[in-house]
Design a protein that fits this description.
Its EC number is 2.4.2.-. 41% of the residues lie in helices and 11% in strands. The chain has 16 helices and nine strands. The strands form two sheets. Strands 3-2-1-4-7-6-8 form a seven-stranded mixed beta sheet, sandwiched between helices. Helix 7 (112-123) links the parallel strand 1 and strand 2. The chain starts with a helix and ends in a 9-residue tail after the last helix. It binds 2-acetamido-2-deoxy-beta-D-glucopyranose (5 copies).
Length: 365
């Protein structure tokens, strides 16, 4: 908010509501009123009061006093920051959802380049209007909303962003273990929701693949090639007694079944918290939740050719050639480290931020 805007309400108050010097020459009392002791005291008090109020008076975008109240309440003179701090998930969802459906991701500041890359690929499928970024820290909340108002929300508490970077760390576990809570909240508000990790790229529109009226849609993280007509049921458990379904791409309808899976996922995360020895992420808990709710919930495994794991797409060029034209979302996993992921995306022509950042609603970051 520029400083000249600050001047205006003060100017208006002084000239229009509390005229200090009478403009009418008829007023013969003028000198005695102005230099009268009581008047001077009153005038000084008024100036002091205005001086105190002045820093807190701002011009909100949507009408005087409607939102300036929240900024003075939080003691933050920066109107836009306090506005976004107060922005709730239900407001954000109502503003952003299209066809009662949201596309969400959860990112901390370090992941902003990946967010932008993912967004550009979604713009190309014309689904970006439905994207809601769950910001895990305040810099992310402010940066996204500054460029793209309303498309980021922070569900408190904010994470300390330093802790959340390293895959396999406790910070990373804490960061990802909030995911089922966020998704459950969105379901409770009544929306369909697609969750994506931001190290993904869309090559086509995934929505036509969400066939039928199932509760939960997901993809397999196993790299073994399956026939094109593979079953859409939950696959059989693997070596560790559980499946390897990816928690990276999930579509949920706001049904009792989908909510049950999210609640079970939260329980499983609490039952098997992070430990130094296991260095778990949130994916095993998601798989146990699917295993334990499979009888009560309508689950749907998406086609491998459309939603391949990185362990297949980036490692089996023969398969990629054979399934050409069927790929919908590519996941840059089975590799760790920002630099390695970026290099691999570049090698495959999927790092769009270098040359196409103008297509993103966030522009160049
Ligand atoms: C709207 O959502 C329904 C089900 O959630 C889906 O079947 C339909 O294709 C969607 N329509 C558009 C225009 O995206
Ligand atoms: C207010 O917040 C916005 C959004 O984070 C930021 O761009 C701007 O620089 C801030 N202004 C001041 C005066 O701090
Ligand atoms: C992760 O969460 C646990 C439990 O809430 C907490 O004790 C720990 O300090 C957190 N660690 C990090 C690195 O965020
Ligand atoms: C897939 O196709 C093969 C050969 O056409 C067939 O034998 C198999 O039963 C099919 N599998 C499913 C799950 O439909
Ligand atoms: C759940 O896991 C157990 C233990 O590995 C397994 O025996 C069972 O078949 C699984 N259930 C489903 C529905 O996958």
């Amino acid at each position: 908010m520029s400083s000249f805007l600050h001047q205006r309400p003060l100017h208006n108050i002084l000239t229009d509501q509390y005229p200090l010097s009478p403009r009418s020459p008829q007023n013969s009392q003028k000198p005695s009123i102005l230099f009268n002791r009581t008047s001077l005291v009153l005038l000084l008090s008024l100036l002091i009061v205005l001086g105190i109020l002045f820093p807190w008076i701002q011009i909100p975008q949507g009408g005087l006093f409607s939102s300036s109240i929240s900024s003075s309440r939080s003691g933050n003179p920066n109107f836009s920051e306090s506005k976004w701090r107060a922005y709730t998930l239900s407001e954000a969802a109502a503003n952003v959802a299209k066809n009662n459906t949201l596309i969400v991701c959860a990112v901390s500041e370090a992941y902003l380049p990946f967010l932008n890359n993912w967004l550009i690929s979604i713009v190309r499928q014309k689904h970006h209007d439905q994207v809601l970024v769950i910001a895990e820290d305040y810099p992310t909340l402010f940066k996204v909303n500054q460029k793209w108002p309303g498309h980021a929300v922070l569900i408190p508490p904010a994470l300390e962003s330093q802790a959340a970077h390293k895959f396999g760390s406790q910070g990373f576990f804490n960061f990802t273990s909030r995911r089922p809570r966020h998704l459950l909240q969105i379901l409770e508000l009544g929306y369909n929701v697609m969750y994506n990790d931001v190290d993904m790229v869309w090559l086509a529109d995934p929505f036509p693949h969400l066939q039928g009226e199932h509760d939960v849609y997901f993809t397999d993280d196993m790299a073994a090639v399956k026939p094109l007509n593979h079953s859409h049921d939950l696959p059989p458990p693997g070596k560790k007694g559980r499946t390897y379904i990816c928690s990276c791409m999930i579509f949920l309808r706001p049904t009792g079944g989908a909510k049950l899976v999210m609640k079970k996922w939260i329980e499983e995360l609490q039952a098997q918290p992070w430990s130094k020895a296991k260095k778990a992420n949130d994916q095993p808990a998601f798989n146990w939740a699917l295993n334990k709710t499979a009888g009560q919930v309508d689950l749907y495994l998406l086609p491998q050719a459309a939603f391949p794991t990185g362990g297949l797409y980036f490692k089996n060029p023969t398969w990629v050639q054979e399934t050409k034209g069927r790929h919908v979302i590519i996941h840059n996993n089975y590799i760790t480290g920002f630099e390695k992921k970026i290099k691999r995306f570049r090698d495959y022509g999927l790092w769009l931020v270098d040359d196409h950042s103008l297509e993103s609603p966030l522009g160049r970051l």
